[in-house]
Amino acid sequence: MTAPGRRSSTFTRLLRHGFTDPSAAERLLDAPELAPVRDDPVLLEALGATADPDLALHGLVRLLEAQSGRDLLDTVIAAKPLRDRLLGVLGASTALAEHLARHADDWRALVTYEPRDLHPGVAEFERGLAEATDPVSLRVAYRRCLLSIAARDVCGTTDVAESAAELADLATATLRAALALAGAAAPDDAAACRLAVIAMGKCGGHELNYVSDVDVIFVGEAAEGVDETKALRAATKLASHMMRICSETTVEGSIWPVDANLRPEGRNGPLVRTLSSHLAYYQRWAKTWEFQALLKARPVAGDLALGEEYVAALEPLVWKAAERENFVADVQKMRRRVIENIPLAEVDRQLKLGPGGLRDVEFAVQLLQLVHGRADASLRSGSTLEALKALAAGGYVARADFAQLDAAYRFLRSMEHRIQLFRLRRTHLVPEDEADLRRIGRSLGLRSDPVADLNREWRRHSSVVRRLHEKLFYRPLLDAVAQLAPGEVRLSSEAARERLVALGYADPAAALRHLEALASGVTRKAAIQRTLLPVLLGWFADSADPDAGLLNFRKVSDALGKTPWYLRLLRDEGAAAENLARVLSAGRLAPDLLMRAPEAVALLGDGDGGGLAPRPRAHLEQEILAAVNRADGAAQAVTAARGVRRRELFRTAAADIVGSYGTEARPAEADQGALVDRVGGAVSDLTAATLAGTLRAVVREGWGDTLPTRFAVIGMGRFGGHELGYGSDADVLFVHEPRDGVDEQEASRAANRVVSEMRRLLQIPSADPPLLIDADLRPEGKSGPLVRTLKSYEAYYRRWSLGWESQALLRAEPVAGDEDLGRRFVELIDPLRYPKAGLTDDAVREIRRLKARMETERLPRGADPKLHTKLGPGGLSDVEWTVQLLQLRHGATLPGLRTTRTRAALSAAAAAGLIPAQDAATLDEAWVLATRVRNAVMLVRGRAGDTFPSDTREVAAVGRYLGYGPGHVGDMLDDYRRTARRARAVVDELFYTG
Known about the structure:
elongated; mainly alpha
């Protein structure tokens, strides 16, 4: 007897053997059923070797209670194979322990230990299920077979791949048994048709889980002499009954759900089709993911000859899938959609679907199989691990990557098996309970600190998968052009070409030359670029023009490759490499700006480059004026100002592209209006600062510190409205006022000289983009003087001003030069643009007449009006003239309308009740979209345009910028027409009839 306060020696031994509740274990060991072996060290050692000794002991006592004799206990003590198998199962699965307790003699299924028992196949499992005569007995027989699979698994007799294959073979035997039961219940139906059951998914791939939906597709044909409609009806009844036999819950539970939703048209399509109907569907309607699913198709039950015909007929279509447009993008988009649909609370515990999970490995392997399997039959395996091994053997995957992914996949699948085995429930979530984690860790051989070790190993393998699964597709492309270590197998040039074409490269030969130039050699530059390129290639492939992205990256690297900070930036700055890839592959404008001064790539980083946030106008003006003051002469000064402008245009364009495309860390900007306002404000501020610097440079060179006349630049049009695009000219008016004592003619000559010199210097051909100054909105247009005095403007506007000029002045805002003069100019024009009496009916009619004439006369010949962003129905002109008409009518009485900005004026009109809120939203949406399209065209083509490009790649790039994925150009154009059509309806109501 143990002294009070002291633990018994049994208690201590139980602790040492891994029991977590030794007190409860002691009580169980005292049970009458265990009395003969209570102190037998063999039993304690065997229990201590299980995943959960407490659970194993509890299950053993329950099983012994159900016995009528001592056969089980004697065999457990005497036969080590049975002891290890039985206790291993009891310590890993409460569900199987429950089954054994209900079916007291099923433990005998674990006694045999012969070679054929070690690796059973379909035939052995069919014998194990042969005595089943109904759904209930089929479930009992299924669990008995499952016992032997689990026993071999937990004892390490089979590895995870072998266990998964055995589970698939058991599923095959079960489907055959269920179909036989269904046929026996309806012999007339069975005689009327030929029915083949095609396994899909993990069952088809010979890699099934313990608890998983068994995915199938049914193929039916009429028996000889039977009408096809009648035969398909009979086949459908058989198939439905077979599914119910497996899926329905009975007193013995269910086996697993049989899921036929991978069939053509999914759950909306017929359950059973003929072979010709299947073939017609896949030839005409099937999506990329459906061919991906067919990789694992395998006939398993019913008419196997018909099943083989099905596979043979569809196989050529499967291996042509990689030729489909946007193939890689479709597969990757589906993977992203899977991740997006995971509940946020489960993402970090998702073993299968989460980032770095099993599905990442499977998708990567299937993608490579589809690209290269057409030419290499060795890759056509339904098993993920076998396919991965074949990919490595053929050089399609680097051997080091193969080894890491193989180990990671095996570990993650083993975790999944252990999690599901416990209660035989379909789950892919890693449990949070410490006892569950301890059991799983111990079952995987992690005994010293099971919970901590399991979490560490899981995160390590998950990290490997996350890092490699996309790079897996790209790294061998570098090996194809690089020097390899002895024994390594390189991707053949044809295989590399196939892969690049699948990624969307139009010129794979040129792409391989670029890769060779970038990645070859033993320099530090080549080594770093070999590390970066697999990831960059993926980002390039996500654009509409991967060829341009790779070519531009080579140009930038050639220019900066010897600069230490460049490679360090791409390697160490989290966002820099992805931002660069997006910018280089999004079109011509941003890369052209970057190539003229590649050091601007520093702006793409997270650190001291200042990032991509637009700089305030005051800071820009301060920098430009400082550069002007340091310069030797006006030409040098304006060159410096234009250099700043080029750099800041690149910053704005890069921020716009990154915000529109999104990154892996940050999704695309959802507020399209905010993107438009950011670009318009940044480009307008930059233009104003450039004009201010140019004005200072011209005045300093010609007159020193003081010009004989006060001089101001007034922004007009989009410039005055802070709405400039990348390709916009700067619409301006020039105004001056002679200083005291200065002759008016002398002042006028000075002002005209300033204007002439500013325009010349800003347009001199150079590496920097020109800034075109347009003064055509001045009084008398092109016939009038370029610059006038304030008094001249006053006289003209008082006597000769036309209605369109008052409308144009709604956008007037001082942007450079003498601030006081600019303020007085605004005071002069305010009564014109915001007339106290509003507009007369004649004035309104004249504005409408001008608008209608402009629509018919200025629209380019051959242009589609419905897609013209400026002059087309619902375009920029429609919205702006509607808003400006409201400003002219009501601006005098409503201060909110006194703004040069279209969106702000529209918002003020809605707030004042001049326009319904819904109509204002419709006009705003159309204006923002049209502006975004114009910005996109300039970014993509490198030159301004008011309509969508006709070139396929260019219009796809516009779509990508606007948030449309590959293959959705038609959706983009339809959405634009729909948005513009709704806006035009509002314009007709407010502008023409309101």
